[in-house]
Amino acid sequence: MPELPEVETTRRGILPHLQYKTVQKVIVRQPKLRWPISDQLPEALTQQPIISVDRRGKYLLIHFPNGTLIIHLGMSGSLRICRYDQSAEKHDHFEIVLDNGTSLRLRDPRRFGAVLWTEEPVEKHSLLINLGPEPFDPLFNGLFLFERAKGRKLPIKTLIMDGKIVTGVGNIYASEALFLAGIHPKRAAGKISLERLQRLAEAIVEILQRAIEQGGTTLRDFVNETGKPGYFQQQLAVYGRAGQPCQKCTAAIKKIILGQRSTFYCPNCQH
Question: What is the CA radius of gyration of the chain?
């Protein structure tokens, strides 16, 4: 699943191609995604200029004068900029044709993505209203985590992946940040000191920033808006490396299932 760095990489990639352009046509080839694409969407977007492209957590927000298009890439979705006359492929389900002859296409083989429209303030949308702060928000720090972890027995990895606590810390980067901070993913959140949680908050930001700079993480599905893969996977310290030596101490990386998600850690460096 594309995580925050992949979505932010996509946002930065498509922004210069979309901003200040006007929609000429909307093509819906397959409306049955995670939620049905509204049949009113072509009418709502046609001849509307694109003001900006933002991101909230893993949601892309394309702003128009009359509302906001909310796009989620689901498990396998990606956005591409291409020529309008370029042949659509099998899983190109949704397309926005712009006034300069280019198109924005959503490709989603598994159809778990979403294309939603709202004319209300987007921050009040049901998918966004309960999201916690972004990791890059000044509100997010060790004290913030400490207050929300106080007295709680749930694993720290579960806490930082809760979008109501902090939004956008997905499975890959949670494992990587916990390794960088030296914290065992199963450690009870309420048992971790403020000092260690401050290090974890800093590690989350550092890992996400590094991933964004390098274009996101390529596992099976993610490619950026030009079709080129991200490269951060080459620098993953623990995720997907079960049985391989730790880059710090050479102990074998362990894999467990935590919250129904694969979790990787070093049994020597993380406690």
Answer: 20
Distances in whole angstroms, Cα of residue 29 to Cα of each of 53, 90, 250: 23, 10, 51
- Could you say which DSSP state residue 124 is in? G
Domain co-membership, 24 together with 112: yes
Residues of the chain with pLDDT under 70: 216-234
Q: What pLDDT, on a 0 to 100 scale, did the predictor assign at position 249?
A: 97
Nearest in space to 187 (alpha carbons), one of 258, 135, 260, 261: 258
Q: Does any domain span residue 270?
A: no
Structural domain of 107: 4-124
Question: Containing H/E element for 256?
Answer: strand 254-258
- Give yes or no: residues 45 and 84 share one domain: yes
Give the active site residues. 2-3, 58, 261
**Count of CB atoms situated within 10 Å of the CB of 31:** 14
Is residue 271 in some structural domain?
no
